[in-house]
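Go through this chain.

——
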Amino acid sequence: MKTFEKNKSRAVVLLSGGLDSTTTLAIAQDLGYQTYALTINYGQRHHAELAAAKRIGEYFNVTEHKVLSLDLTLFGGSALTDQIPVPKESVVENSPSQIPITYVPARNTIMLSLALAYAEVVGAEHIFIGVNAVDYSGYPDCRPEFIEAFQRLAQLATKAGVSGTPLRIVAPLISKTKAEIIQTGLNLGVDYSITHSCYDPDSVGLACGECESCQIRKLGFNKAGIDDPTKYSQETGRVE
């Protein structure tokens, strides 16, 4: 993670309600930024994460929290936005060259574009996003190359960029393992019991314990040697 001097400048933080984005918010606040949280309701089937994002914004007392609705179910094409079953196979069975059906087409491109607009309006100089290229699902928009490319776009496509004060895209978790992310968050006071990771929660919002996101979360806590505070509707032994 690049080290920034602590300051009182503004930053937009993309906040999904999950483990990674919550840790990213904690990092931004620890660096001294006034944080403007942006949550996107894109029609995700795991809408419990929207409630988690609200809890997290309140927990960290962000300067402002916007929830923007953009219905990607009109396109579908993902198990998160379409009538497609969420896979429950073991994460170790996935090939890095295969993009899983839980990938939402262009999601991070869309979200960062909206964050750019929000940042220009509130005068933020940095946009924080919790993408990760180590313990992740193989999504193409979680890679360092994507962040670098979007950084170039931000310089070309914004008033701030052409005025000589380009917005910076910050991905502090990009090279961390899930265990390292969890330990970082705990050191910064994150309460992971209020976060939500599951792609396929039950009707009351309990995590399934079997989808890829649940498995990656469990494995991260297991490797960190810390108990996962999540309540699961199903318990499996796949994290061993």
User: Anything to note?
Assistant: The chain has seven helices and five strands. The chain has one domain: 10-224. The beta strands are 10-14, 34-41, 64-69, 126-128, 168-170. The radius of gyration is 17 Å.
